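Methods, example record. To illustrate the input and output format used throughout this study, we show the complete record for CDHR5 protein. The sequence lines were provided to the predictor; the line carrying structure tokens was produced by it.
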Amino acid sequence: LEILVTVLNKNDNDPVFAQPNLSRTVPEDTKLNTTIVAREELSATDADLDTIYYELTTTVQDTDGYFAIRGVNNPEIYLQKALDYDKFNLTTLLLYARDRPVSSPEPSNTATATIALVLEQSDTRPPWFRPCTLLHADNSVCISSPYSGRVNISEMSTEPLLLQPGPLYATDPDYTINDRIVYSIVGGNRDEVFSVDADTGNLTMNKIVTSPDSFLLQVMATQVSNIRKYSVATVEIKVINRSLHPPYFEKGIYNGTVFVGLPQGSFVYQAGDPSTPLVITAMDEDYFPDV
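The corresponding predicted structure is encoded as:
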């Protein structure tokens, strides 16, 4: 008597990852669709020889959608959304391997791999002149106000010029790189009257100014390791007559009148003349009678 026995394969084995824990460093300027972790490193095996189904999730808030797998049966991880180091600089992904589809009513065996991704800041932004005002929520653009200063006509200053709103100063906004900045004057410097210190940004005079015409300098801040990353700031230097006299008030004492119950911003009136607003004026003999 011959008896034919067929042994059925019971689904009693979990999928197995060769490397259940992986870590990668990802440059911030990685191009979209670039492979982050190859399929060969992430594929799971199953002793039951079942088809493996994969699912990728993230454990860090606000990092959804940046990374994805190629397909339900292809665990290769690729970049799906442009990275921004200022939004997040690390995340942890969980890759699930199942021997049944997620929607299957049959029970499935599951394995989990953990992938830690650390972002590396890239040199993506040019120098910022400080102080400046951020225009976008992602901190990608910062606009500085023009600088201004003044020099006396026919006088030579040996000290760095005082500027508003502050000294010439630029920084690398890619702060983990923090490239060194060098300064140069690229426009508006008639007769080479001014020079700028390449390292400090201090403006100094090379010669006296004999004309009352103002200067509108363009000063460039350039990153040392990447000359294509630069910014240009405008510096207005006004040429004025030297101030020999201090300003003075026309009166030693001003008397005014205010009325009870008036709202904020109401006029103060001259004492004894409730119809005329109180005006306080000063004179300066250096500019008399024009100012």
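Annotations derived from this record:
Residues 57 and 94 are 5 Å apart (CA to CA).
The chain has a mean pLDDT of 93.
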